[in-house]
Amino acid sequence: MPKKIIFLLSLVVSHQTHAMHTPMEIENVDTTITEKTNFTELLRNIIMLPDDIKRYIFQIMPRESHNEFITRIEASTKNELPDCYYYKNLQRQLHQRGFSTFDKQYIPTGLCPYGKNVAVLTKDSFLKIINTHEHSIIYTEQLVSKCYLHVALSADAQTIATVHQHTQADLRSITEELIIRNITTQKTQSIIIPSTFCIASQHKKPVLAFNTEGTYIILRGIDDSLEKVSSNSEDACDEDEDNSYMPDHLIFPVTINQHMHLLFSLIMRKIMPNSANEESKEKK
User: Fold this and answer.
1) Cα 115 from chain centroid (whole Å)
2) Whether residue 95 sits in one domain with residue 45
3) How confident is the model at residue 139, as a pLDDT?
């Protein structure tokens, strides 16, 4: 099935290129051309495809189901990142205080589904996206200063999500908000987290994460409205205090870039065959 999809994708890309009267020049392929360059060119051609072809690909391509998504997140653990990832330029400056294990627990980090990139959001609201294979920064941005709790990164490192707290005007209540933003198109999606949902701590497992296609995002915690939790819900939300509870999940659709992420996922499955989804398909 995947081979058929790749073949179909190649045909439609080729057809679109000729239809636009901009035929691809055939040259001797330089072996030094990087995979990233090839992928960028393919993605550029895919984006130019007519919407009806994109919708057809959307329908036939394999996807991560909600159950697979939840299972993957529950099986994941947050590994400690290298110390240098917590410094602004990946280097500790002279006289700069180091980060203890305790400090790192409260710095939001989010590994993308394939593990190639990670987002780190320091206390001064400075965002870094780091390539974990090359240990290099690929994107930085000074975000608006807020009380950020969690950060997540899509597989293509083009979409970030953050959860932050802000106090209402009456100073009596706190609202938690999920912001999803495509850093290329600057399209933004905002979701207010229900007040009955107690977000889990971030110390051991991912709390906020994208699915492999980047079309849904999950938030782990406890839903008090389901009346499954003891009166001490604060402890129940802290997985370091009580690891016996069964977490709830809020799963939201990412509406700002559906087609592009699904097409990207298809390519990622081709160039990264050891992904969790590919392994599950091979087992079947």
Assistant:
1) 10
2) no
3) 96
